[in-house]
From TrEMBL:
Descriptive protein name: Ureidoglycolate hydrolase
Keyword Zinc attached: no
Claim: Hydrolase is one of the keywords in the record: yes
InterPro entries: Amidase_Cbmase
Amino acid sequence: MMSKLNQDILRYSLLKRCLGDIDIINIVLFSEFSSLGSGFKTRRSLEVIVFTSEESTRYGSYKFICLFLFCSLLLAGIESLAKDLTSAVDGQNISFLDAARSGAYAKERNVLSIVFLKKGSYSAFVELHIEQGPILEEEGTSIGIVTAIAAPASINVDFEGNGGHAGAILMPNRNYAGLAAAELALAVEKHVLESGSIDTVGIVGNSSS
């Protein structure tokens, strides 16, 4: 279970990541605590970029097309993604562009393509992120550097079976879909734990009957 401290931090994750970036630049360049000295100039400009919906759950997948990370992908000039977004709709059939306009975005006709950047426009990206797990907190460490990120993959599995009368249908004639699904969940856990990897996670998500 996530600690109360971590729960409180996550509530302000996005706000902290936006304002925190600005605060870091102020400290590095202008603060009296900066070790760089007055008049320091960077070799490259330092900019803060705020994405409004980088990892959208509302438009995360449209017609089996993965639309995650679409803000950074649009910056990279992925034209096919811009085309997909113009026709993407959510579960209530509201288009991506209509939703953007309702939030005071997408005022220009070419709103998706105007963010395309030329190759080499940025030398590097650094993202400030609240830890979403317990490791740093448990070790009493205030900050860490990420060396790898999660690369999730998922599949949908359908189980079909039959139960029947609790007493009249004997075990040889029973074919419970739920038990097969439970065996799969245990097999996934067993496979991951025996893989020897310290950071591989395997879970079985939502199920319905």
